[in-house]
Amino acid sequence: MIRAAILCLALVGAAVPAVAQTKATSASGGTIRVLDKTSGETTDVRMSRGQTKIIGKLQITLGDCRYPTNDPNSDAFGWLEIYIDQDGASTEAFSGWMIASSPALSAMDHPRYDVWMLRCNNQ
């Protein structure tokens, strides 16, 4: 068991330099998806960089959306700040990078809403 954990850490450590060396380009905006778990309704939201939108009780700001420069159609990652309105007070629900291909890696933990990054937009 310990050997397996050490092997996993070694493999992850070997992959980090390759990922860190990949150049990323900022897009003009991105698309996120919001799921209201209570109603089952999903909403795709197209946003510009720096824009804030209100969906239900969520206030979502897209700080940046980046994609690998050498492969624009591959993985997107976006900086999101999400606040939720609870009884007239706004509390932070999430702040950080979300990765389109791995939404669970950095996910918003909320009982009613799920939010994840879909892609970057260059228009």
Please explain how this structure is put together:
By secondary structure, the chain is of the alpha+beta class. The chain has one domain (23-121). Helix content is 15%, strand content 52%. It contains 1 helix and 8 strands, in the order αββββββββ. The chain has one helix at residues 2-20, and strands spanning 24-26, 29-36, 41-48, 52-55, 58-68, 77-86, 89-99, 113-121. The strands form 2 sheets. Strands 1, 4, 5, 6 and 7 form a 5-stranded antiparallel β-sheet that branches. Strands 3-2-8 form a 3-stranded antiparallel β-sheet, with no helix packed on it. The longest helix has 19 residues, at 2-20.
Largest sheet: 5 strands, antiparallel
Query: Element order, helices and strands?
Result: HEEEEEEEE
Number of helices: 1
Oligomer: single chain
What percent strand? over 45%
Helix content: 10-25%
Summarize model confidence as the mean pLDDT: 83
Radius of gyration: 17 Å
Key traits:
123 residues, alpha+beta, 3-stranded antiparallel β-sheet, 15% helix, 1 helix, globular
Question: Helices, strands, pairings?
Answer:
Layout: H1 2-20, E1 24-26, E2 29-36, E3 41-48, E4 52-55, E5 58-68, E6 77-86, E7 89-99, E8 113-121
Antiparallel strand pairs: 1-5, 2-3, 2-8, 4-5, 5-6, 6-7
Q: How would you sum up this structure in a few lines?
A:
By secondary structure, the protein is α+β, with helices and mostly antiparallel strands.
